[in-house]
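Input sequence (115 aa), recorded before submission:
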Amino acid sequence: QVQLVESGGGLVQPGGSLRLSCAASGSVFRVYGMGWYRQAPGKQREVVARITSRGSTNYADSVKGRFTISTDNAENTAYLQMNSLKLEDTAVYYCNVNKGWADYWGQGTQVTVSS
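Predicted structure, token format:
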């Protein structure tokens, strides 16, 4: 069983920054990698960024150049640095670990971009 706890969400103005954190209950990121997803009201959950166990990253086109995913394997914590936030980034953000046979999600953290 993997426990994931997100934090760092909040209310920010357009153009602002936030850093989300995802704390895992064990050393899963170094083995399985992880991903950040988001779900806006009335929309399907979508992938934002992923990082593999080797540190390779990929991003949704909508956040490329603005968001950065990283992990601190010593602390079992993953981060999503979000810069130049836009209104359309408003969503609940979730972290995810997929072991292949099991999929784990955090409870989500709300990010609201509003002027």
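Checked by second reader. The two ends are 40 Å apart (CA to CA).
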